[in-house]
Design goal:
Strand content: 5-15%
Helix content: 40-55%
Strand order of the largest sheet: 3-2-1-6-7-8
Structural class: alpha/beta
Shape: globular
Radius of gyration: 18 Å
Order of helices and strands: HEHHHHHEHEEEHEHEHEH
Number of helices: 11
Length: about 325
């Protein structure tokens, strides 16, 4: 990896693999949404003083939430990796290497394609041959161990407001669709769009379907799901902390920047998107939008991506 590569933003548009990844994620999400809807718990509602949004009973609207640093503090895949490491899926040095890369990414604000490819290959090699059911079961345990206490209360309240209004709420994340589905179910959400790893007869093959659900692929997944569900994207909302999700945020009529990185904050202010920051405890900034306009896997495999960058011997 060239050191300066981290400092140069790379513009990407949707490719055929992005579309494939998005459509695969949408299909996987729809297969699990019925069960999650039945398990959803009544939400407590919008805190006092919040504007009247979302619109009650609008069945053509839905909400799409990024996961890492939007709904949950930190990266789901890293926390999942901690759990896999605890269960001896890989060595300590692999977890340390991934933690360092995560910290560097947060500082540089861009991802290095070479590192992402290496992470992808490592993750897939780790879960190859494991059963999907095994990773789902482990994901349940890891949620309790590392993730539950890291959910942002403010973002959860936003999601619950959409649920209270009778709308569906989906997580949209590059994390494995299995672990994303576990998190969505635990939060009482409709379902999750996540990275899909190929499996045959319930066993991971070590291949991806398309590519990780990241950047343009997220937008494609939302577009595909909206078409399948009969949603009007102009009436939908999306929430994210990252400028990498601008393609997804730009699809909907009500984009929200939550705990935004520098680039997203600048973009959101320019376009008068709503901003909320739960990291400091201060009341979120509300930018330019009338109150009525908004509130305010590599499956198992990518998950193991926490084993990131494991060198093949």
């Amino acid at each position: 990896m060239a050191a300066l590569g981290w400092l140069t933003p790379r513009r990407r548009s949707a490719t055929a693999r992005s579309v494939l990844a998005g459509e695969a994620s949408a299909e996987a999400a729809r297969k699990t949404s019925q069960e999650l809807e039945e398990l959803a718990q009544a939400a407590p509602g919008v805190p006092a003083g919040e504007p009247e949004f979302p619109v009650l009973g609008d069945d053509k609207a839905a909400a799409f939430f990024d996961l890492d640093n939007t709904v949950m503090q930190g990266a789901a895949i890293f926390h999942f990796g901690r759990g896999l490491h605890k269960r001896k899926f890989f060595e300590t040095r692999d977890l340390a290497r991934f933690a360092w890369q995560q910290a560097w990414f947060r500082l540089a604000g861009v991802e290095d394609p070479e590192h992402m490819q290496e992470a992808r290959d490592s993750a897939l090699s780790i879960v190859k041959g494991h059963r999907v059911a095994e990773l789902m079961s482990i994901g349940e345990e890891i949620y309790d161990e590392y993730m539950a206490e890291r959910i942002w209360p403010g973002t959860r309240a936003l999601a619950e407001a959409h649920l209270d209004a009778g709308q569906k709420v989906w997580l949209v994340t590059a994390a494995p669709v299995e672990i994303a589905t576990v998190i969505a179910r635990r939060l009482g959400l409709t379902g999750a769009l996540g990275t899909v790893a190929e499996s045959v007869n319930g066993v991971y093959t070590g291949k991806l379907v398309g590519e990780p659900l990241h950047g343009p692929a997220k937008a494609e997944a939302v577009r595909a799901l909206a078409a399948a569900e009969g949603l009007d994207l102009s009436r939908c909302a999306a929430y994210s902390d990252s400028h990498n999700d601008i393609p997804m945020l730009s699809l909907v009529g009500h984009p929200h920047a939550i705990n935004p990185d520098t680039k997203l904050r600048k973009h959101a202010r320019k376009l008068e998107w709503r901003l909320r920051d739960y990291r400091t405890g201060r009341k979120a900034a509300k930018v330019g939008i009338p109150a009525a306009a908004g509130v305010g896997a590599v499956a198992g495999g990518t998950a193991a991506a926490i084993a990131l960058h494991r060198r093949r011997r």
